[in-house]
Amino acid sequence: MQYHAYLHYNDLKQHGIVTKVTAEFEQNRIPPHVYRYQFSTVKGETIYRSGKIGSQGAKDALIKFNEEYKNLQVIYNPDKPEDFWKYYSFINYPKNRNQKLFINMLIGTLVIMYVLQIPIGFIFERFSKKQKEA
Hints:
Layout: H1 2-15, E1 17-20, E2 22-26, E3 33-40, E4 46-53, H2 58-68, E5 73-77, E6 80-86, H3 87-133
Antiparallel strand pairs: 1-5, 2-3, 3-4, 5-6
Transmembrane segments: 101-124
Protein name: DUF3592 domain-containing protein
Keywords: Membrane, Transmembrane, Transmembrane helix
């Protein structure tokens, strides 16, 4: 999945077009509330998306909608407009990817050190006992 996301990122980086979306918020009597957005491609297609937003009250859902979808831009490939990214995710992808790589390498190093500590400590203890006996 990571590799697929990286290939998709590179494809959008080379061929992507950034466009603004039209978004609307629909308040339901019972949460969750619904958001909808759409954008038009250069070929005249209109892409629609919708989803649930906010499991709390309408005020919290509206605040979240205004933060995330009010001024939303997307980047898409004209050949495959259904595969698009939110533009802020696209901008932050390299930074997030490098941070995840660093954290995974750090955790991996600590785990390897801990796992190797047990046999190395055992071997060191055996040799020190033999030297004390001699």
